[in-house]
Amino acid sequence: MSGLPDRSTGLHSDVVILGAGAAGLSLADRLARAGTATVTVVEPPDGPSRPPERTWCFWDTEADDVEPAVEASWSRLRIHAPDGGSTTVDPHPLSYRMVRSEPFERLVHARLAASRVRVLRATAGTVNAVRGGAEVRCSAPGTGTLTLRARLVFDSRPLRTLPPARTTLLQHFSGWFVRTASRRFDPAVADLMDFRVPQPGHGLAFGYVLPLAPDRALVEYTEFSRAPLTPAAYAAALSHYSRKILGLGAFTVDATEHGVIPMTDARFPRRIGPGVFRIGTAGGATRPSTGYTFAAVRRQTRAIADGLRDGHTVVPAPHGRRALAMDAVLLRALDTGRIDGPAYFTRLFRTTPAERLLRFLDGGTSVREEWGIGLRGPVLPMLRTVAELPFLPRRARPAATAPTAPTDPEKNADDAAARP
């Protein structure tokens, strides 16, 4: 079902989901397949409020629920050190998978259309507690306002202000979907981190290559730092990486993508009112040390749906306390420059079994495994950081937004110098 119903009918559901990105649609999909609750999804109408197409990546042993939306997968991952040396690993039984948002949305919407889930194209406003649950005020151009009532509301909309944190870095990136004139890529190997790019004065930078065919790939330039770049700087960095480092030769750009992901040790509250919960990035699903979100969203929404099926409201923390504590140390160590980011990540991939390292990055390792991984890193700088963290104040900051890209992805790319 779609569209806005007549306001006089009143709209009651067991569950209202605000936002239709990875988290909102994943939860709606799981609840639709469970069939144990009536669900209303509120997603923005067409226009500037709808986000552009995005790419989500994750690693797992299977992806049965989203497999039709998986555009590509890789059984081997490669890291390039700043000196040019490379390390290729096989994380079997895990595979690295890429999902594009538009195929994912089409897949889920097709399932929802065959279920009891109602999808409303509207702008969600305030959420207020009422007896027996909560109500949401919505509006749509030319239609006016509508009040939705539900026992439970799950809000996945982006936050305007991040919760107070001791350390906040941004993972900001710009990417080109390129098509080369000749075969330049190995479709079996994804370049997860290529540190051959010039490093910024603060933080770290790397290239990222996801081959889709021998002549097609997503090529990205990524930084972990305190502020995004200008569109011209991203274009210059991507041009330098594509032409000088990868040596792609002649190529065309079929599409672009840009993003800013907060990497923060802030505490994201999941329950924000009686019967009202935050999920997805707004609920802390983004892993602070890596920026990955999709796998945590899948785990969290599965737990919520399983709990509702069994008669319980369960919104688990997306990441464990131990993982978040380690992330806080790493973020502070990177932000202060106490550790060399490229050297640290390169050493991790060279010295740790790949499957164990990916489980570690996803919060799935034991204490013993984590001690072993930790001892392979810069122990003294990390211990110094552990000692100072309890005394650092937490400060709030606005949530970052994605940079605006030039209309022509090559604009200024040849004239601007690559960043030092």
UniProtKB/TrEMBL annotation:
Residues 398-407 have a biased composition (Low complexity). Coiled coil: none annotated. Gene3D superfamilies: FAD/NAD(P)-binding domain. It comes from the Bacteria. InterPro entries: FAD/NAD-bd_sf. Residues 394-420 are annotated as: Disordered. Residues 408-420 have a biased composition (Basic and acidic residues). This is Lycopene cyclase.
